[in-house]
Predict the structure of Ni/Fe hydrogenase.
Amino acid sequence: MEEKSLFDRLSKRLETLEKLPKLDENKSIPKVLEEKGVSRRDFMKWATAITAMLALPGNFSPLVAKAAELSDRLPIIWLHMAECTGCSESLLRTDAPTIDSLIFDYISLEYHETLMASAGWQAEHNLEHAIERHKGNYILMVEGGIPSGQNDFYLTVGGKGHTGEHTAQIACESAKAIFAIGTCSSFGGVQAAIPNPTGAVALSKITNKPVINVPGCPPSEKNIVGTLLHFILYGTLPALDAYNRPKWAYGLRIHDLCERRGHFDAGEFVEEFGDEGAKKGYCLYKVGCKGPYTFNNCGKNRFNQHTSWPIQAGHGCIGCSEPDFWDTMGPFEEPVADRLYNTVFGGLGADATADKIGVGLLAVTGIGIAAHAAISKFKHPKDEE
């Protein structure tokens, strides 16, 4: 009964969206996919995969497919703050566009500095017009950290001299939903690394409205599009972890689903890059893999048309979807082991933290694989202040 009730609720939600006028009568997602050679069969296979990723029953696939087809009915404003544009580029720069990237290309992007032709005063006018026209109804996606406070002048936008912080705050005020895309927007990123001369902070620090974080450097295209589709389906925020990340995408550690996990359990490690263990695909923990401390689904989604991902290619995870990873996860080619770092329990090493709170310690390797799980469970991001 609960499943049927959810199915009916999501169906009614999509029926409501379907009645909304198209923001561009000259294009539609189904038409674009057909023109790009994506068959209905391939599209439904993709929808089935997204359904599973969102932890929905298999019979919800038609609803997910319909949500994707209706994704051009909701206006989206995408802001660039202090960043490298890598999050946008991860969706756009592909020799064989995936369904995810095609949907991203043709959703109703009312403002996106990388994609739109306008610049200067015209771009400013477009942003102001989009915010006013779709007030209270648009989805705001923000890429990049926010130089803030007395250092906000490090990022000024347009001829009026508005700071990035001011622009983001204005856009947040009238947004229906707010997504922080990438680690910079979610947690400050490299801009916020010590000594943080620009005073860069996460998007959530400059607004009182709820922000869904979709971290990664860059995040998977499926996590970006999946988060959008979840909102289209439900019209509400998804279940979030302690760092406001969707649990369906960031609920498990890299370590939990890693293809090298069996070697970890057997105590078979790469001791240095290029050694015999590396050739045999042994665990990369001893050469710096942060998989036991990192929550993401990279191993399932992969990158470059889902061809590979860092651990498959032979380099350990660097923890890029975690808060302050530039400071807490480095050096990237060395294990965390007993290196000191600040936690809610004080200046303890990762293993000592895991041991102290009793969430498990592997005697063979001395690696507290549950340390970050415990920290995420007991500490909320705002507690860091």
User: Anything to note?
Assistant: The longest helix spans residues 2-18.
